[in-house]
């Protein structure tokens, strides 16, 4: 395997990590209207991802940096041609992050409701648009000889891309609901399991349609095999949830997302962005990659730092592995007192600034 192909799959690894990890963050954010019957419930839900949501989100930053360094032509075409969609994703992520930090700053219910709505929007919009983006990358877009996108915004909202967006939206939602059932106990846990059963059925139908569409229209033998594996693990996750095996349900759903993303990357090869108007204008792994010298340096850096990233990520999840419940939430205190104490409403499991759960020291 040459270096450009190796880095194509390393980039796929980082996007897989992002969709698996930030995927359930999006899902948890979208569950607030369904599982959050009152403010205490919503605080429990937010605290399930409080210590980790910003850590999960850094995977997309690394993925973007890797694409910029390893495949500058692909990066330039994608981020310029999909500019408005990418901007919408960025604004939604900002909206979500700000909402995590600010919803607890005032005690009024109306204040918190506004930020709760922004959390839902800031979670649902990226969940849909990332599927739209990757579906268009697999399908291809019109490119000129200089690899510039020549279509319009409406061209990106084609039936296949919309189906891809709905697939990621539902996958992430169900992934998040299963994560809530894994991380909570009591009534929220039971409601999350019941919701996962309902959303899981719809997810299976939509995801199956997308995977079949992809395999028939754009896939290869290997991508078809991977799509079949993703379908099996998705059904397995549903069965595991039915049997109250929370860990297996979550692990199988994570595997589903990982294998599905891998199948999209495999279906692309040797292209990274096909040109629908003229195959000669397509961006490929070869013509979109950086020089061999650049990729060699990047390989040594990755060899050193990627294992460290994985160890740190694993350590963080181990530290915050405890289940949460309504009883985990401390009583509301005055905002002024929260800033001075370590367990008040302004102090999340990993600090008010980074945990995003500034609601309560629920996992302490």
Describe the structure.
There is one protein chain. 48% of the residues are buried. The radius of gyration is 21 Å and the shape is globular. It has a domain at 3-172 and 270-340. The N and C termini lie far apart (47 Å). The chain is built from 15 helices and two strands. Helix 1 (3-30) packs antiparallel against helix 4, helix 7 (109-139) crosses helix 9 (159-183) and helix 7 packs parallel to helix 12 (246-268). The chain is mainly α and 364 residues long. It has a two-stranded antiparallel sheet. One of its GO terms (biological process) is aerobic electron transport chain. Residues 334-364 are annotated as: Disordered. It is found in: Cell membrane. It holds the Pfam family Cyt_bd_oxida_II. Keywords: Cell membrane, Electron transport, Heme, Iron, Membrane, Metal-binding, Transmembrane, Transmembrane helix, Transport.
Characteristic terms for this protein:
364 residues; mainly alpha; two-stranded antiparallel ribbon; 2 strands; transmembrane; electron transfer activity
How many strand elements?
2
- The SSE string, one letter per element, is HHHHHHHHHHHHEEHHH
- Tell me the radius of gyration: 21 Å
User: Given the C-alpha coordinates, what overall shape results?
Assistant: globular
Arithmetic mean pLDDT: 87
Distance between the termini: 47 Å
- Main sheet attributes: strand count, strand direction, barrel closure: 2 strands, antiparallel
DSSP helix count?
A: 15
């Amino acid at each position: 395997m040459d270096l450009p192909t190796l880095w194509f799959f390393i980039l796929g690894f980082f996007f897989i990590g992002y969709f698996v990890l930030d995927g359930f963050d999006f899902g948890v954010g979208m569950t607030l209207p369904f599982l959050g019957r009152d403010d205490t419930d919503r605080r429990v839900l937010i605290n399930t991802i409080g210590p980790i949501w910003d850590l999960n989100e850094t995977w997309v930053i690394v993925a973007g940096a890797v694409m910029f360094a390893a495949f500058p032509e692909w990066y330039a075409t994608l981020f310029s041609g999909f500019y408005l969609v990418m901007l919408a994703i960025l604004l939604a992520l900002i909206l979500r992050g700000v909402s995590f930090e600010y919803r607890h700053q005032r005690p009024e219910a109306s204040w918190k409701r506004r930020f709760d709505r922004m959390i839902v929007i800031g979670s649902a919009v990226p969940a849909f648009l990332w599927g739209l983006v990757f579906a268009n990358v697999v399908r291809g877009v019109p490119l000129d000889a200089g690899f510039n996108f020549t279509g319009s915004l409406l061209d990106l909202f084609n039936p296949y891309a919309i189906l891809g967006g709905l697939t990621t939206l539902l996958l992430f939602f169900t992934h998040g609901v299963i994560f809530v059932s894994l991380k909570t106990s009591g009534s929220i846990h039971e409601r999350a399991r019941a919701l996962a059963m309902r959303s899981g059925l719809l997810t299976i139908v939509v995801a199956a349609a997308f995977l079949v569409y992809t395999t028939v229209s754009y896939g290869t033998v290997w991508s078809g095999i991977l799509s079949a594996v993703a379908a099996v693990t998705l059904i397995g996750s549903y069965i595991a949830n039915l049997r109250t095996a929370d860990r297996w349900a979550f692990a199988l759903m994570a595997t589903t997302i990982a294998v599905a993303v891998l199948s999209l990357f495999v279906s692309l090869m040797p292209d990274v962005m096909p040109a629908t108007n003229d195959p000669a204008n397509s961006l490929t792994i070869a013509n979109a990659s950086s020089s061999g010298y650049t990729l060699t340096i990047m390989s040594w850096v990755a060899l050193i730092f990627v294992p460290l990233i994985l160890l740190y990520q694993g350590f963080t999840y181990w530290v915050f592995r405890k289940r949460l419940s309504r009883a985990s939430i401390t009583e509301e205190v005055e905002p002024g007192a929260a800033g001075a104490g370590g367990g008040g409403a302004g102090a999340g499991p990993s600090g008010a600034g980074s945990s995003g759960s500034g609601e309560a020291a629920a996992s302490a």
